[in-house]
Amino acid sequence: MTKVAVVTGGTRGIGADITAALVKDGYKVAAFYFGNEEAAQACAKATGASIYKVDVTRYQDCMDACVQVEKDLGSIAVLVNNAGKTNDGMMHKMGAEAWDDVISTNLTSCFNMCRSVINGMRERGYGRIINISSVNGQKGQFGQTNYSAAKAGMLGLTKALAMESAAKGITVNAICPGYIRTEMTGKMKPEILEAIVKQIPVGRLGTPEEVAAAVVFLASDKASFITGSTLSANGGQYMS
Ligand code: NDP
Predict the structure, then answer these.
(1) pLDDT tens for residues 92-129?
(2) CATH superfamily entry for domain 4-233
(3) Buried b (16+ CB within 10 A) or exposed e, 7-44
């Protein structure tokens, strides 16, 4: 039986590599996207994944989309909460909108999606939930109180849901990527990027493929005994 995986933010950046890696591993993938239609079409064409336009900050939209995925592809076995965004600024200058924007896109989305799939996984006695957090949720980051709080919140959610779900054959884990070579880091000034790379013991940025490989492992039966854990993929930049 082909397993079905949902990847939020699954058509661009790290998410597109996660989608491609899961398809390669034999999954039927539903890749959720938000606004970048061109990237979504390109991802569908390149990987054969099914694409769904879903705003993951909206609870009912997530519930409806997961029902649709199950009608189209079958029962959801794997959920990767990858959609995220930054909206940086120091706390003393941050507006409530920037706070809400980042908390809802990174953290509330994680609740919305987990809540949408958890009953089905519990009934079937199987599931894999993988939350893409960040090194900045582990260590904090200047100018990112909102993002650091959201990503740290994902780690708490991961552990609590792992406890609730372990007896039902569901594992819940988090991955904390460090700096990854994506469009986002590509837009940074070269001198800033150079200074960051100096703080990474392996001496380079990570690749989206390296994050995707960790997702494929945590989604596999080989990772059955791993739950509630946080896997750091940061080149040694932060060792917690
Ligand atoms: P990108 O900015 O390249 O992509 C973000 C993805 O999230 C896009 O696919 C976007 O959809 C989707 N998205 C944003 N808002 C919504 C929404 N409201 N509803 C649905 N989807 C939404 O991010 P990255 O690939 O760089 O990062 C992926 C994840 O990894 C994020 O959670 C990020 O915080 C985390 N991370 C990234 C690091 C890095 O160095 N890049 C480091 C550590 C963690 P669309 O394409 O349609 O706009």
Answers:
(1) 999 999 999 999 999 999 999 999 999 999 999 999 99
(2) NAD(P)-binding Rossmann-like Domain (3.40.50.720)
(3) bbbbbbbbbbbbbbbbbebebbbbbbbbeeeebbeebb
